[in-house]
Amino acid sequence: MSSPSKAFEPRRRTLLAGNTDLEPGAAQRTAAPVGPETTTITVTVNGTEQELTVDNRTTLLDALREHLQLTGTKKGCDHGQCGACTCTVNGARINSCLSLAVMHDGDAVQTIEGIGMPEALDPMQAAFVEHDGFQCGYCTPGQICSAKAVLEEIAAGVPSHVTGDLTTRIEATEAEIRERMSGNICRCGAYSNILAAITEVAEQQAQGDRA
Questions:
Q1: Which terms in the GO cellular component ontology are assigned (predicted)?
Q2: In the chain, where does the domain assigned CATH 3.10.20.30 lie?
Q3: 3-class SS at 48?
Q4: Is 92 helix (H, G, I), strand (E, B) or coil?
Q5: Boundaries of CATH 1.10.150.120 in the chain?
Q6: Is the pLDDT of residue 11 over 90?
Q7: Which of 47, 188, 56 is nearest to 128 (CA)?
């Protein structure tokens, strides 16, 4: 009986390489797509309905920046660790770099452009300016989107890791704000100024509630 061909000899190199020598040409073959590679979705962005046809692998962040030219939402780490890409979807803040655009068909998205523009600043934006809550400014859109959501979460009674008594009204304390903003990184280190800006808006809202 003839000996097996060299391609089928059990060799250490063959086993470590995943048996690529056992089937010549296997590495060059690619699987055919199982389904469509693009999807058309309808998303309401900053109050305007948008129809987009996107690659199924496109993140919400890239859809906003590349398809809608809403570049206020920043790409920082692209791994959900810095918060620069924070926006809200149906009122809840998310890291848009971690979410696929096709997941948001029918959703309402708000970006920094929908919060306010230079000629009509939102109170949170104005507070950031007043308290110098930014230096390079790259993280600022995500910081502001998160800051507004933080105060909404507190007002809605959503607890955080540092919330103590759950039977009483949650207050916008320094500890609460710091904990809830911990996912937004500022490389310039303007944290104390950011805290001051958020605290001012929280106090303004509290006064409005008492009025």
A1: periplasmic space
A2: 38-115
A3: strand
A4: strand
A5: 123-210
A6: no
A7: 188
Element holding 13 (H helix, E strand)? helix 12-16
CA distance 149 to 48: 21
Token pair of 77 as six digits: 């780490």
- Read off the DSSP letter of residue 58: -
Please state which CATH number belongs to domain 123-210. 1.10.150.120
> DSSP assignment, residue 126?
H
CA distance 96 to 210: 35
Q: What is the dihedral of CA 175, 176, 177, 179, to 10 degrees?
A: 80
Question: How far apart (Å, rounded) are the C-alpha atoms in residues 4 and 148?
Answer: 70
Tell me how far apart the alpha carbons of residues 83 and 80 are, in angstroms, rounded to a whole number: 6
Which residues, other chains included, contact 114 with Cβ-Cβ below 8 Å and sequence gap of 6+? 45, 46, 47
Instruction: Write down the residue that tokens 């104005």 correspond to.
Output: 126
3-state secondary structure of 100: strand
Which among 128, 209, 202 has a CA at the least distance from the CA of 172? 202
Give the domain 38-115 fold: Ubiquitin-like (UB roll) (3.10.20)
For residue 102, the number of C-alpha atoms closer than 13 Å in the C-beta half-sphere is 11
Q: Pull the structure tokens for residue 117.
A: 């523009």
Report the b/e string of 24-52 with b at 16+ CB within 10 A.
eeeeeeeeeeeeeeebebebebbeeebeb
Both tokens of 159, joined, read 């607890």
